[in-house]
Amino acid sequence: EDQVTQSPEALRLQEGESSSLNCSYTVSGLRGLFWYRQDPGKGPEFLFTLYSAGEEKEKERLKATLTKKESFLHITAPKPEDSATYLCAVPQGGGNKLTFGTGTQLKVEL
Amino acid sequence: EAGVTQFPSHSVIEKGQTVTLRCDPISGHDNLYWYRRVMGKEIKFLLHFVKESKQDESGMPNNRFLAERTGGTYSTLKVQPAELEDSGVYFCASSLLAGGSSLTQYFGPGTRLLVL
Fold this sequence. Notes:
The structure holds 2 protein chains of 2 kinds. Chain A is mainly beta. Chain A has no helices and 11 strands. By secondary structure, chain B is mainly β.
């Protein structure tokens, strides 16, 4: 069965302290890996789609990378407004349904 | 452009009652999905519509859950009768039917359901 594992479960950073979040996956025939940001009381907000190993995508202070077994979400010089739960997900089997990880809860402090 | 909308945002009901959740997808999105997150667990798939047809309902927990999408526009998810374990956040998502970005799903804000 397809699995998605995220680490760490929680991460506390000082403003400006760069770090990376990890998403490991086991799926046959990866058709895409998705990163979402979720704020408390809201739905997941789409960030990136990565389709193949070696691909990278950037948005402001975030950069997502993909290998054959895992994806990283790099956060450079984070700000308090980057505090959120970051989720990764992969399409399961041959269909569109997403399998989610449990997320990394990021808190960036002044 | 309006995103995915869900109604109500919160619902508190007693065990045994009926609740109906509604989802309006992004205009032009023929794929519509329902997911659920229960306390402390990951978001899990419930159901996938393509237009008005159920493409995949493998995640529906039991026959107390009924999803419909009449006319291929908005969808409803009815829970009848509700049980305590149905409490959680119900998310709806939508995506395009085809094309390179058809896998990218956009989520609504969710309906927080509490069954007492």
